[in-house]
């Protein structure tokens, strides 16, 4: 778990065997760009509380996120996003 205090963001990564997931919690009242160290591969967004289907104000986070070991995200204010790593066959 990492805390980006200046940006009011909390980053949580969990894994078990081949399964990996990470969550980004934004507690700030403004968007802020952050760089996160995540495992290389493709990550699929499974939840974004800023999405309109969850009555959020809209999101700028992509549905698929390629990583070369680091990703740049700009989470919406007061939101939660969860990504899972796609398992390669």
CATH class: Mainly Beta
The CATH topology assignment is Immunoglobulin-like
Instruction: Report the mean per-residue pLDDT as an integer.
Output: 88
H/E series: EEEEEEEE
**Number of domain units:** 1
**Approximately what portion of the residues adopt beta-strand conformation?**
over 45%
Helix count from the secondary structure assignment: 0
CATH arch. level architecture = Sandwich
* Strand numbers in spatial order across the main sheet: 1-2-3-8-5-6
State the helicity in percent bands: under 10%
Structural class: mainly beta
Large-scale geometry: globular
Low-confidence stretches: none
Taking the sheet with the most strands, its summary is:
6 strands, antiparallel
Please compute the radius of gyration using only Cα atoms: 13 Å
Number of strands: 8
Span from first to last CA?
29 Å
How would you name the CATH homologous superfamily?
Answer: Golgi alpha-mannosidase II
In short:
This protein is mostly beta strands and 89 residues long.
């Amino acid at each position: 778990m990492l805390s980006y205090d200046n940006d009011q963001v909390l980053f949580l990564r969990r894994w078990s065997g081949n399964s990996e997931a990470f969550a980004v919690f934004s507690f700030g009242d403004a968007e802020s760009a952050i760089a996160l160290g995540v495992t290389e591969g493709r990550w699929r967004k499974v939840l974004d509380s800023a999405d309109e289907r969850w009555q959020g104000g809209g999101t700028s986070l992509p549905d698929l996120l390629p990583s070369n070991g680091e990703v740049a995200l700009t989470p919406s204010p007061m939101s939660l996003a969860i990504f899972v790593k796609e398992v390669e066959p």
